[in-house]
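Consider the following assembly input.
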Amino acid sequence: MKLPNFYASGPLDRAGHRRKSPDWLAERLRHPDTRIQLVWRSQHLVIDTAEGPRPIILTPALASDLIERAAEVVLLGLADDVAHFALDVSALETPLAALDLPEASFRDLRAVGPLIGRDEGAMLAYARGLMHWHARHRFCGVCGAPTESIDAGHVRRCTNPDCATSHFPRTDPAVIMLVEDGDKCLLGRQAVWTPGMYSTLAGFVEPGESLEDAVAREVFEETGIRVDSVCYHSSQPWPFPASIMLGFYAKALDRAIRVDETELEEAHWYSRAYLKDHPEMLPRRDSIARRLIEDWLTL
Amino acid sequence: MKLPNFYASGPLDRAGHRRKSPDWLAERLRHPDTRIQLVWRSQHLVIDTAEGPRPIILTPALASDLIERAAEVVLLGLADDVAHFALDVSALETPLAALDLPEASFRDLRAVGPLIGRDEGAMLAYARGLMHWHARHRFCGVCGAPTESIDAGHVRRCTNPDCATSHFPRTDPAVIMLVEDGDKCLLGRQAVWTPGMYSTLAGFVEPGESLEDAVAREVFEETGIRVDSVCYHSSQPWPFPASIMLGFYAKALDRAIRVDETELEEAHWYSRAYLKDHPEMLPRRDSIARRLIEDWLTL
């Protein structure tokens, strides 16, 4: 089995059947073994150590005041029968004031993700993704009434009794693809990226498309290159803010690049030898883009 | 190359760069070559012929009155430089009254899909999916204000100037998987299905999961069976109402089935020989489930 991508395959059993058990949830939320993660404006509680940043997970006793004041309380799941919850404390200006943790701070997973462990990364990514969904779905898209969180934070229901639509977490499928032409692959960059960084092409799947259709459409739109032999590699949850990345390899049918400048600043063909000599130009270590490129370099 | 799944790989160039060209859109919407599809309460305009049901696509002249009264006008794309649009006429009680087509009727793609051509099926599925998204996102999830359609029907924007959030079409990723144990595969059925029909297991991907994680979780939740060797097969847009189906094969690590009766009515192991003798129990011809099973039967 291939190693899972970063942020995937976390340590929790999601225990979906517990989401509709209010008594069990209330008991577990205050159980001394329980572990609680905070999410504040899409950031996580982190402390710096000699080994780098480490996420801080609280006990119910430590988080007691915040449990009362959290906008959302979400059951993440179970690990070795220990329940893990996440609290959204974004409405508080200074949630740290409720905690005696002077060296802790809230940090963005985009910054600390590549520096923490795989299991920790997966748990933080899962919580971040759910809280982003809650924040974007406070009102019902069908009727405009407020929604409320039910099922331990995994469903939002419209509070208008004439509507009462249930809304489920949203995850946007996006394809990301390494296009190859013999010993060269196609990498591009967006103007907003770190200078000198190049990556695989990517884009969102539209209604009425297969993943393979989306790969071909995005590559053609962004670079004018037609592809075939579109072949699945792996997938990765990517909660920045709400995607699942679906990784593919594809073979180019054209060589000449015509960059769509509304999407990309530039795109070029790179040989394996060149990329091996220039690892500094590759995307971040926690990304499926990096994985697609590194796996291709070993082919 | 494998044959695409039904509803995928439609004949249209989506022409995304035209979505922000109001003059071009206005001119094309009335151009005599243009073709216009109606969507009424998730149904499509169909006429019965000796060869079976056929979708009816209108000219701008025929649809003129409905263009004025449509809740949504969406650019689907171009085929041979002919623009294809879809109109949402759901707000009208009797849209057929505006047309001189006495033998036409609105029919559900779930019923006519298996009886029409691949290209027609893909175009209807695409339009249905987009119109369902519009209907479910008339209000902004962030602030509750009304949204408005922009970019030729491919974006909805919040009309509250202090919010102005852009909302993009939603497609829910769902995994669907054939679990095998040697010469047998695992099929189940939900109580609401046509009696006697069995299919592969399936379920929605949750935030923080890879597709492969979701396959393993869903199979375990529904049947108590653990899997490995989770291997991608293909994907299919499935606008009933808003999914993309992501097809996998997986190998069972257990044999004993424990059905979760909140999800399934029953599940069993079936041999290739049995399934070949009982094609009447297989899912509908236009589904990726059918494809997964039929491809497995030939392995």
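Chain B has a mean pLDDT of 97. Ask yourself how this observation constrains the way the partners meet.
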